[in-house]
Amino acid sequence: MSASTAGGADRVGLPEAAAMLGVHYMTAYRYVRTGRLPATTVDGIWHIARSDVDLLRHRSARPRKRRVGGSRERSASLYRERAISGDEAGALAVCEEALATWATPMDLDLQVVAPAMRRIGDLWNAGELRIADEHRASAVTTRVLGRLGSAFVGPGRTRGTVVLGAVEDDHHALPVMLAADLLRAEQIRVVDLGADAPPEAFAVTASEADRLSVVAIGTTLSGMLQVVGSTVDAVRRVRPDVTIVVGGAGVESAELAAAVGADGWSGPDGCGLVELITTVVRTTAREDGRSRGPAPSAGRPVASESQTAPVGSDHADDPRLQ
């Protein structure tokens, strides 16, 4: 859409406004929806005054005090309330307000949505929430993350590909969705297998992926290390050249990651995963076809080869792997 189709030289359409602000189209649309950028619509076309775009650009360029502490806690609390009540529109509004005032997309995932859902899980485990409440909150969050996913994708070429998923019989999809968002924010292409992905799903997807740098295998459940090991084996058979990392709350240490045959341990949360995978992708890009060694583990060393159990149908004698 040109400026003329949006109402004249003094007005622009939404794509032009996004380009002037240097943001994604969906970010500019969010500014309009939350009132941060005044706009009118005629026949389905947004009309935005250039002066309003210039004013927002000037304000955004000025250093501002980010009320991270209070805003973060308030947003997480409000989000938790909306999700438990099944209020999808209200939960989305909390997220849009945070993005418009203090949060980056990564802040939103790590400081609002993830803490809120973790607290909901804790309350359910303590018997203070019903299973219906927990499922309702998870359904709301799944839809909210789907609505906001485009905010994590910026312009430009991706730096590599990651295959990501939770292992078979682990039905927790939200940690995978959050991790995928965080990686996309780092300009990494993600092939998201979601939850309950069998070993063959990882293997087939890895064999077909273009510019594959990492396969990330996760589980939030204890007692799943045998399945994690089988998934590592399946990927290794078809892509022996690719770095395989494992993590999540169900993989408690770098030693256990090494014992199931992985190259690296991403830790229990999304921060460690992003740190590790970003490092691996950068290293892969620099190597230009040279052979790779084991991946670093986001500050958590992987066990040495002498400590690593043989990869196979049984992953050594550690009773935790049985």
Structural class: alpha/beta
Low-confidence runs (pLDDT<50, min 5 residues)?
1-6, 64-69, 288-293, 296-320
What is the level 1 CATH name of the largest domain? Alpha Beta
User: What is the averaged pLDDT score?
Assistant: 83
Number of E-type strands: 8
Provide a compact summary of the structure.
The chain has 322 residues and is α/β, with parallel strands linked by helices. The chain has helices at residues 14-21, 25-33, 50-61, 68-85, 88-101, 105-125, 131-148, 174-184, 199-208, 225-238, 254-259, 270-287, and strands at residues 11-12, 40-42, 45-49, 161-166, 189-192, 212-218, 243-247, 264-265.
Question: What's the SSE blueprint?
Answer:
Elements lengths: L10 E2 L1 H8 L3 H9 L6 E3 L2 E5 H12 L6 H18 L2 H14 L3 H21 L5 H18 L12 E6 L7 H11 L4 E4 L6 H10 L3 E7 L6 H14 L4 E5 L6 H6 L4 E2 L4 H18 L35
Features:
Rossmann fold, Multidrug-efflux Transporter Regulator, Chain: A, Domain 2, disordered C terminus, single chain, 322 residues, Methyltransferase, Methionine Synthase (B12-binding Domains), Chain A, domain 1, 11% strand, five-stranded parallel β-sheet
